[in-house]
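Input.
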Amino acid sequence: MTEPKKVTVVTRTFQAGTGPDGKEFDTDYFSEKVARPIRNLLAGSEEVVERIIVVVNAEKGNPLAEGIYNNGQTPSERAFIEAFPEEVRDDKIIIHLCHDWGNNPGSGNALNEGMEIAQRMGAELAMCWSPEIEMNGYQISEALNFMQERNLSEVGFLRENWWEKPQWHVSQNTGKILEIKKIQNIGGFSPACNGTGKTVTTKEFGEVSLAGMEDFHAMLRTLKSDPDFRWGMIGTANPLKWDTDFPTGSERLLNHLKKVARQEAVMKEYAKQIFPELSYELVMNKLFACYHQK
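Output.
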């Protein structure tokens, strides 16, 4: 068996409203919730991780964005350079400013731009990842081996309590490895998933934006274009720790709760859009007919 290819990690980050004349950048949050997980990911992962591309929201006028200083840097970019000077110098960590982020915190545009950079640098596999999911080189290696053994186009990582909600049974961009060419063949993650003004109804928050789940939207489009689409999830016995311990009353916590509340309703709407002739149940049966789990 040939050795599995390395992955280029693509991750998104921002601290909304920080920068020139804006809010103060939270260095403690950056150190604990962003830099520490990335440092842990890099430790001992040289054989499976080529580099990390960090995409920062720098879209002018976007309330979620960071402002840009006179030297062209945002607060997060500056923090990365200070925290990882050698990695940034050696292109082990590449900071990219996204000027077309969109309305959704989990921007698909940001991931598309990150993967384009990865492909230009020779990468074939990308790992979309959020630092709120603890990850290490061994887990990535296991996923790569599983991907190769089963001839899968993408592999997601099961998180703690994954059995609780339908959306956690499918591979999400908080932690998934995918073939860059495969996602680009369908035009990348859809900008429509950033929000178009349409809403869905949730029990907890009422009407919320029809947005997010760009990963699921892409899976359904891939399935429609390729009936033999093969995908899987890994980590049944050892699911990943998902750190969502956001401060009580914070905007981060509210956004997280709204995101979780709307996800299944969003999935049902996407299924209706992409497979209008099928019920949601039949769409999910069709998707899970291509499924592998370990």
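The mean pLDDT is 93.
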